[in-house]
Amino acid sequence: MQPLTLGIKSTPRLTATCWPGHLTLRGRRGHCLRFQTAFAAAPTNSTSTTTPTTSPAVSSSGSETTIQQQQQALSYDPALDEEQQLSYQLSDVVMWAGTRRLQTQVLPIAEDTLTIRSLDWDRDRFDIEFGLDNGTTYNAYLIFGDHKTALVDTSHEKFHDLFLQALRAQLSAAGRSLDYLLVSHTEPDHSFLVPAVLDEHPDAVVVGSKVCLGFLQNLTHRPFKSQAVKGGDKIDLGGGHLLEFVMAPNLHWPDTMFSFDHGTGVMFTCDAFGSHYCSLRPFDADVKSLLPHYRFYYDCLMKPNAKSVTTALRKVKDLPYTLIANGHGPMLRYNVPELVGDYGRWSAALEKGTTTVVVLYCSDYGFSDRLSQTLAKGVTKAGVATEMLDLLSADPQEVVAAVGRASGLVLMAPPNDNADARTSLAALVSALKPKTKVVIAESYGGRDEPVDVLASSVVDVWGELLAPPLRVKELPGQQVYQLFEEEGTDLAQALTAKASIARKKAAMPPDVCKALARLASGLYVVTAQHNNARSAMVASWVSQASFEPLGLTIAVAKDRAIESLMQVGDTFVLNCLGEDTYSPLMKHFLQRFSPGADRFSGVEWFPGPHTGCPVLAGGIAYLEARVVSRLETPDHWVSYCEVLAGAVSDPAARTAVHRRRVANYY
Ligand code: FEO
């Protein structure tokens, strides 16, 4: 293998050697700087140090140390601005909780601007997301103006040592200290290390929205210099780096803001336009791989706030941004109009409907935000828009207006000792329209307002409880999140059932409806499992789709509970029902299950040998498969799936055939 040249020359003080995937700069005193280029693979445990994060995250082997790697200033070279040629500094791997690999990656992204990406390789999911096990990143940014230096966001608690090391190294190499710490929003995955950064830079001014600075007081428990900014406010770092702030509340916390650098065209957006996708490739060049993650992230975190997404897009439409520096996953450089445009299209599609559900939660209290987000995701799965409002920071008039507009209400129990929440609760009771469908749920915050009291105050003003209040008796796990999501879908379906049937009937001329029903199909039960969350559904829109590899397609309605377990990369089992034996299984799985109910109670099954997903003992054959890609139709996801394994239990039996008279139902 011949060394490559990437425009870096050896000098008397520095020897450069570049192999595909690695660039090594060796100093005269034996110090070694090791870079990797973007084609390097994800790290394996074998290269890791096993140092816990409570100890300095530095490993040493001879003269190569992580600290030495990071004590080199990085500069931006537009000539190297192709992803295949990018160089970056990569820390050694540190293990978290025994098995989770953590690492930082530092690289320049624009003039005087670099990112410190905290790579959380093995974070398997965020609470409300069941699938896409590709880890995540927490992205922070440093901007070196001519006379001021700003850090945009920090990192997750678990990156305490790694992040601070990287930050120290870059500031030290540039001979700078921090003048500003921009906090785009206060969820701990980006803001946990704010106090630690302020310990090292006590004179830094914390910049954020007014709501954000209020939240930060609770986080830091000490005074700090601060500057509250509004939309349109600017801070000049010098050298053309004029930062303009855009308020983007509810994306996805009430305090979120974007920051736009007029000098570079970089827009810092924190959660918005992100994805939970950990890769050494810092940008969106491989958009095909990224898209399912980008979409799923939007569905989970942004879709419940579609209206706020639309508002934020309107506010930034005239800003000449060319790079989206987000808080999670690859930054957007190569597909900015398309990917930003997706947010606009997806949000507009949801906003077309007239039925809405308002979701009242409390940020930074117990599990209120995550559980409410999960409920809202369930609502939006059924095509109903939600509007999320934080009871602790929203104006009571805002609450009244939102409740007045809504057909449904989700109320997460607020803390019983908060005056703002009490005021908003009194206001919403006065605004509730009779027969508004209501879901009330505990927040698992330790001092929840009793849900029975909340329920009776709703019933007193003629609200209709969809079901008894949801109670959370233990630290929410995947089953609790599944319950909340399904409750949200139930609420949306209760609000739209009549209109939905009428729409389906109106959509098809009678003759076409009868003709389409002549497409016969088999009868199956799809079963899926992710950790301890399981689901199942009767399916008939199934077909073989390829020979090599063996593949099939399956259509799943968007509002099906199992849809959350059938994301790209997820596995499932397709159970074939026999023509003489299908009836009991079909009846069982066609019943309407209450949210969170165990679909497999009373059914004999065993775990599939390749996937662990339930195989029904009463089926005549089964196939284990993995979702490879998904095609979106207006009301279904059509998944193309690779078959992994299969077996026949009854070679003599034939598959049940499903025939219909009309095509506007299954
Ligand atoms: Fe990535 Fe809302 O935190």
Structural class per helix/strand content? alpha+beta
Discrete helix count: 15
Tell me how many strands there are: 35
Instruction: Give the CATH level 1 class of the largest domain.
Output: Alpha Beta
Mean pLDDT: 87
Number of domain units: 3
Each distinct ligand: MU-OXO-diiron
CATH topology of the largest domain: Metallo-beta-lactamase, Chain A
Level of helix content?
25-40%
For the report, how would you describe the main beta sheet? 12 strands, mixed
CATH architecture of the largest domain: 4-Layer Sandwich
Sum up the overall morphology in one term: globular
First and last CA, distance = 59 Å
What does the model show?
This protein is an alpha+beta fold. It folds into three domains: 4-348, 4-Layer Sandwich (Metallo-beta-lactamase, Chain A); 353-502, Flavodoxin domain (Rossmann fold, 3-Layer(aba) Sandwich); 510-658, Pnp Oxidase, Chain A (Roll). The protein has 15 helices and 35 strands. The strands form seven sheets. Strands 1, 2, 3, 6, 7, 8, 9, 10, 11, 12, 13 and 14 form a twelve-stranded mixed β-sheet that branches. A hairpin with a 4-residue loop joins strand 2 and strand 3 (32-37). Helix 7 crosses helix 8, helix 9 runs parallel beside helix 13 (478-507) and helix 10 (396-405) packs parallel to helix 11. It is globular. The model is unreliable at 1-42 and 44-71 (pLDDT under 50).
